[in-house]
Design brief:
The chain has helices spanning about 5-20, 30-35, 35-45, 50-70, 120-130, 160-175, 195-200; strands at about 25-30, 75-85, 90-100, 105-110, 135-145, 150-155. By secondary structure, it is of the alpha/beta class. Helix 1 (about 5-20) crosses helix 4 (about 50-70), helix 3 (about 35-45) packs parallel to helix 6 (about 160-175) and helix 5 (about 120-130) crosses helix 6 (about 160-175). It is built from seven helices and six strands; from the N terminus they run H-E-H-H-H-E-E-E-H-E-E-H-H. Strands 1, 2, 3, 4, 5 and 6 form a six-stranded mixed sheet that branches. Bound molecules: iron/sulfur cluster. The site of iron/sulfur cluster (SF4) has 13 residues, from helix 3 and helix 7.
């Protein structure tokens, strides 16, 4: 019998297949830029099975992939890996789009509705790719499910870069010592797969 649970199961399987699993000597830029507690849970808890956030994530990934497919061959490189050594670990990132001739890096974000201002976590992420790829400038592209699009231009901010590195160090320490980082609540909590654990146990 086909039920909603079956379909959630399909999505979960897809997410697990695509999930990049990192060893302790790597912290991903997106982990350090977003809620550190969520990143900690991702590393230490199995993902819940019946979870709408898997569906939301894969819908967003579909848009990313279609745009990346279109722009490959137009001078853009996709999922470009960048690394930076921080003490005991590598800070690793994958930029959605990078144009080496133009020195431009682009981060794509699908959302339910356009934010009034870009999220700090998204700027931290884009800023890190701008730094790591030595890009001249970056663009943060929001694509809303309503069909609206908003683009923010960004130039390298060294203060944001050191903030991101400090966050990566904090996360690395939290994982190695199995100490849950503090909550970083915000609108992103709505689609957080760990919100029940997070709310239940401080
Ligand atoms: S519910 Fe919010 S604060 Fe808690 S882990 Fe998820 S994103 Fe972080």
């Amino acid at each position: 019998m086909l039920t909603a649970e079956t379909v959630y199961g399909w999505f979960r399987e897809l997410v697990e297949k695509r999930r990049r699993v990192y060893s302790l000597d790597r912290i991903h830029v997106s982990e350090a830029a977003g809620c550190l507690r969520r990143a900690y849970y991702e590393r230490t808890w199995p993902r819940p099975a019946l979870d709408p956030s898997n569906v939301v994530m894969l819908i967003g990934n579909g848009v990313h992939e279609k745009l990346q497919e279109l722009l490959t061959g137009k001078g853009w490189l996709v999922e470009v890996e960048a690394r930076y050594r921080v003490g005991e670990f590598w800070l690793v990132g994958h930029a959605d789009l990078y144009h080496p001739d133009e020195g431009v890096v682009v981060e794509l974000k699908t959302t339910n509705k356009l934010p009034v201002e870009p999220y700090r976590s998204h700027l931290l992420q884009l800023n890190a790719y701008t730094y790591m790829l030595r890009a001249k400038r970056g663009y943060l592209v929001y694509i809303a499910r309503s069909g609206e699009v908003k683009v923010y231009r960004h130039s390298l901010d060294k203060g944001m870069w050191s903030q991101l590195v400090k966050r990566a160090i904090k996360l690395h320490k939290a994982i190695t010592t199995r100490t849950k980082p503090p909550r970083e609540p915000g609108p992103w909590c709505t689609h957080c797969p760990y919100k029940w654990q997070c709310l239940a146990k401080r």
